[in-house]
Amino acid sequence: MHSADALESSVLDVLDKQIVHALVSDARIAFAKLGAILGVSEQTVARRYRSLRQRGILHVSGQVNAVPLGHARWAIRLRTTPDKAVRLAESLARFPDLSWVTLLSTGSEVTCVSRPRSVERRDKLLLQTLPQASQVIGLTAHEVIHRFPLDEEWPHFSHLFTAAQLRELGSRSTPADAGPEAPVRLSAEDEAMLAILGRDGRAPYAQIAAEIDWTPTRVARRMAELVESRVLYFDLDFAVERMGYAVRAALWLRTRPADLAAVGAAIATHPETVFVAATTGPTNLMVSIMCRDTAHLYRYVTQRLGALDGIADVEVTPALRVFKQAQTLLDSDRISLAR
């Protein structure tokens, strides 16, 4: 058995993987429903989920999609010097508007994703805070102008279910950039609820209701409205190294304008892909991938990407260390909740 496969098997068994896939499909699925689908007890599902969290393997969080609020996402590349790179990444990880803070393998570049919730916060971050930081010697900001929906969300465990089980679970699609015609306005109670869900995407309705002085029924109804309007979506952070994936990489591609949509859609079908979007800037396509090792990364670049027409250039930037994912900090190879 491949060493990475052996590692994955020692961490996640089949039931764990089925629970992971179910949470990817529906992050707030009732454990009683999931147990019935899988043929195990509600208590067994709850115990396994608690174990996955306590071992630092996964974390469920509610995420805010800034686009329906009238704001854009940005992928930011910051150049620094190797002696200051770790300190810069640690500082960026503490910013609430920033996610996916990553030190690249060059040792002198840090990338992150920004989802500012106002024009003022965007301008302060991009025009003042980051450029003026003593560790930063250069900055490139790529606005995300289109996100391509994935065929299946990573880590691709759907094959462990029967067709009937998958129908009962339903499917999750990549959060769309399109939203309501007019930007959604959030109340103070909405913001408080979103903050709670950011810490724990499975927080019970009753807990949220008690904290924001609403009824559980009202919380459930408003949460459903925010999901329907695309403002709220649920995401899972993983300790991917403990699942057998040693290489994360960002790819920065240039395509001919006429080929951009076709190339992005094709990459979205690749099992290694976890994110692909068209962007502004010197490159026009950003891709995040997961590979088991560097040999897998090489095969991906030469075979999967190499088979696509329309790619003029590609820069491969493996991650040396990930400091923060969507909502969680990483402590070595384990998830630790962001504060």
In short:
The chain is built from 12 helices and 12 strands. By secondary structure, it is an alpha+beta fold. The chain has a domain at 185-228: Arc Repressor Mutant, subunit A.
Descriptive account of the structure:
This protein has a domain of 44 residues: Orthogonal Bundle (Arc Repressor Mutant, subunit A), CATH 1.10.10. An eight-stranded antiparallel beta barrel has the order 2-4-3-10-7-9-8-5, surrounded by four helices. The protein has twelve helices and twelve strands. The protein is of the alpha+beta class. Strand 8 and strand 9 form a beta hairpin.
Gross morphology: globular
CATH architecture of the domain at 185-228: Orthogonal Bundle
**CATH domain topology of the domain at 185-228:** Arc Repressor Mutant, subunit A
Mean pLDDT value: 91
Contiguous low-pLDDT stretches (5 residues minimum) are 1-9
Helix content: 25-40%
Computed over alpha carbons, the radius of gyration is 20 Å
Strand order of the largest sheet: 2-4-3-10-7-9-8-5
Classified by CATH, the class of the domain at 185-228 is: Mainly Alpha
Q: Please state roughly what percent of the residues sit in beta strands, choosing from under 5%, 5-15%, 15-25%, 25-35%, 35-45% or over 45%.
A: 25-35%
Q: Describe the largest sheet.
A: 8 strands, antiparallel, barrel
Order of helices and strands: HHHHEEHEEHEHHHHEEHEEHEEE
Total strands: 12
Total helical segments: 12
> What gap, in angstroms, lies between the N and C termini?
39 Å
**Sheet/helix structural class:** alpha+beta
